[in-house]
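If it is no trouble, can you show me the amino acids of a protein and the tokens describing how it folds?
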Amino acid sequence: MKRRIYEDAGLPKDSFIALDDFDSLENLGNYLNTLRENDTEYLRLGHIHRRNF
């Protein structure tokens, strides 16, 4: 989804992955692989919204 849709819904900017943040599917895939290999970054995405909601 587009970043604007999530932000308009009131979600914190770092609590989701917006597809339009990436200029290619390859870059998105690379980022997802980075998250898969980096527990700290992965957990950060999942826990930011819990502090706000």
